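Fold it.
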Amino acid sequence: MFFCQTVSSDSLTRLFNDANFNCVNTKGDSLLGIELSNKYISLDSTSAMAFNNRGVAYQRCHKYPQAFNDFKKSISLDKNGFQPYYNMGLAYYEIGKYQTAVNYFDSALVLNPSHVRSYYFKANSISKLGDNQKAIKYFNKSIELDSKHYKSYKDRGITYSLLKNYKLAIIDFDTAISINSVDYEIYALKAMTLIQMNQISKAIFELDKVQKLTTNPLVDYVYGVAYLTKNDKISACKYLKKAADKKIVEAERILKEYCK
């Protein structure tokens, strides 16, 4: 058991800080984070940090009502802390309440105008709401603040692709790859964009770079689409079946239609 003896407030703070990164990684660690926060709160019920961090742990366990309550309590204890506003926005984003998420990200940005992830998730929320052109504006802001935030390039590339601005999408995917070459999903996204540009051979070349390095089902799916576009039904069905076996719904649909 993590708490096997009486712990002072100072030492508990150090313990919490040490465990804070772990409490968001897995369900088990999130439960430990809840237990740790409960202990902290029992010693100091006015700690905005403790309520915020317990909210994060609840969020990672998908216990959203409890998370919302803790984030609100954290805000009531410290109205100048941006983190619970951001975390509230992130939780609403996760459950598909995108406009509410935007509102909380805006509140976080009032308190911390340089918070990259608030701009990043605000952009994604706006994209989910269907305004991709506006979303680009906030991806631009997150990149302006952190030119190495590869996820902003990756998701701005997706947004450009949705806007059919394929050349800018390719530039963003290439930039994302240059920053993080082991996020193999980016290669699949770039390949899908190349297919939209009718550059099938280039798309397959991109996928070939990572085929042996990943089991990401999106790679198999895009291979299937590429070969389907080339009228290579045997190869297409082989990859679509792999993707369908990994629960890619669109692969299952195409498989039923074309690979009977």
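The mean pLDDT is 88.
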